[in-house]
Amino acid sequence: MSVLPVDIVYSIAESIGVTLRQDVANVLIEDTEYRLREIIHESVKYMRHSNRRKLNPSDLNSALSVKNTQPLYGYTHPIQFKQVLVGNQPLYYLEDAEIDLEELVNRPLPPVPLEVTFTAHWLAIEGVQPRIVQNPTSSERMASQDKLTDSTPTEKAKVLSKDPLVKEVLTKELNQYFEKITNYVTSESKALQVMAVESLSSDPGIQALMPYFAKFINDSIIVNLKTAKSLHFCTCLMIMVDSLLKNKHLFVDPYLHQFISPILTCMVAKKLSLPGEDHLALRRFASSLIKHILNTSGATYPDLQSRITKTLLHSLLDHNKPFSSVYGTLYGMNILGHEVVTHLVLPHVKLFGVKLAGVIPEDQQADADAAKYLMIDILLEHFRQVVSNDPDKVEESIDHYKPIYGDFAESVFEKFKNMV
Known about the structure:
Helices cover 61% and strands 2% of the residues. It is mainly α. The protein has helices at 7-15, 22-49, 57-66, 101-106, 138-150, 153-160, 172-185, 190-202, 210-226, 231-246, 256-268, 280-297, 304-317, 323-336, 338-345, 349-357, 365-389, 394-405, 409-419; strands at 82-86, 89-93. The chain has a two-stranded antiparallel sheet with strand order 1-2. It has 19 helices and two strands. Helix 10 (231-246) packs parallel to helix 12 (280-297), helix 14 (323-336) runs parallel beside helix 17 and helix 17 (365-389) packs across helix 19.
């Protein structure tokens, strides 16, 4: 005999339009009681294992999951039941909250969620964390260390128990190597400099030093241009970059953006040296490094050339730039190829001619003459490539390009005729 009233079964059957016999209803109510006792028994086990004396809805859901039965959703602890009397028996129920549809419709919409995007960056290369924007800086790491110092022993033990994701501490040997190499490269001794360059261009075990070399070069260029303006020092740093780029054992791609900045500085900076020193050779050497980077990594990073070209174009159009910067800009654009000259240099030839026709300070006269002759050579090479495609139309080409070349047209065509 079940402790549950058989009227429960009859009520459920009537709600779904089923008529039951007395014996069927008795069997169903007994089976229902058995299932309930089984679920409650399993729920009590979860309650005891949780060291509690009160049964929670989570215990019932765990028991239902064990029995491969769908859990009850929407019930949390504590549950507030309402009670009414039906005859002599109490009936418990959950009161549903009433929702005003008009208020729901007029409620302001929530903000539109942001579109999901992602980006890729180097977390670590060869076990070393590159110094880029996405990775934590040294100040952030120091702040985390201070936080660890102020934490409790338990929290500190949890943090220290985790293995570090990347290696950030150099060995004693690498530290000594870094100090000696940076001193030798910038040394006045030719023998020491040659030895350092050979090591940088062939040593396979210095991958861990790449971020340190990149930071050293960037910081040294900035400090030198602000204070000493030593041409020898800048040249040594560019030789150091050249050696690292030519080392076939090093993976330099993650550090290219850190190398390009000082190289472009040596190309278009206003002052690289003291008066009387040949800074144009350094600008030409820096331009050759840009060409080497584009030849080796241009296919990997398609937007690399466009970024460099925009920087050079900005320098060319800046009227405040001295002729020394203009020389480095023109030389770099010429190295980038015929298309860059055609689309970026030719439209601004007349503007450059106007600048040359103006008043030139005495200390910039030599740089202005060098930039002028470089422009003539660039235009001459451009015209030779144009004519080589159609040798029978030389005169027509001269008439076409004379207004484009502006003040340089006479010198370019005279040189061309002497060559022919």
